[in-house]
Amino acid sequence: MSTEKKRGGFLARKAKKAEEHGIEYEAKLRTKECVNVEDVLKLNRITSDYLCPITANTHKIDFTKFKIRDIESGVVLFEIAKPQGATEILSSDPNAGRYVRYEFPPEFLKLKQIGATVEFTIGEKPINNFRMIERHYFKDQIIKSFDFDFGFCMPSSVNTCEHIYDLPGLSAELMKEMVENPFATKSDSFYFVDDQLVMHNKADYAYKYNASM
């Protein structure tokens, strides 16, 4: 057997072992009463499901506006807002509203920095330590992990903040593969209050030549 074949077999076994570990670790997290920041930082793959129920959001955090812009040019790449006075629509899907699908042109992958501005409201309880961990993967290979702190939030308040994302430098080969595999790029967004997971949202991404930017 050639050295190349031996190495290929070793890498395949290593990848399978890592996948099995990731599945087992995620299953273990589901048995925990409280998932914390340290727990999600150990994840080595996109989660297959949500790590907390919608009912964990006891602080009634509600995201009402979201905008993405290119820091260098100032061009707005994506913007959405919940209509004023909108009420929640009843759905048979218990996870409705926790998943977003994005479509950007391939040029998006070459950007160095983007700004994400979010507006959100808070219920009647103040929040002393509101934090988000966002992890991006391509085919279960982690590309980048972001860590943002929202700070203190007053009760019954409307809050706006912009987080700056320093985007990773991607090889031409990886960018080509990401373009050729729409929605194989995925992310988990974990939101914590006092180091306790209270919200978990998911997204996937396609980079298409007919998408606008």
Which helices and strands occur, and which strands form pairs?
Layout: H1 3-30, H2 37-41, E1 62-70, E2 76-81, E3 99-104, E4 113-121, E5 127-138, E6 141-153, E7 158-166, H3 172-180, E8 185-193, E9 196-207
Parallel strand pairs: 3-9
Antiparallel strand pairs: 1-2, 1-4, 4-7, 5-6, 5-8, 8-9
Folded structure, characterized:
- The chain has helices at about 5-30, 35-40, 170-180; strands at about 60-70, 75-80, 100-105, 115-120, 125-140, 140-155, 160-165, 185-195, 195-205.
- Strands 3-9-8-5-6 form a 5-stranded mixed beta sheet. Strands 2-1-4-7 form a 4-stranded antiparallel beta sheet, with no helix packed on it.
- It is about 20% helix and about 40% strand.
- The relative contact order is 0.20.
- By secondary structure, it is of the alpha+beta class.
- The longest helix is centred in the N-terminal third of the chain and has 28 residues, at about 5-30.
- The mean pLDDT is about 90.
- The protein starts with a helix and ends in a 6-residue tail after the last strand.
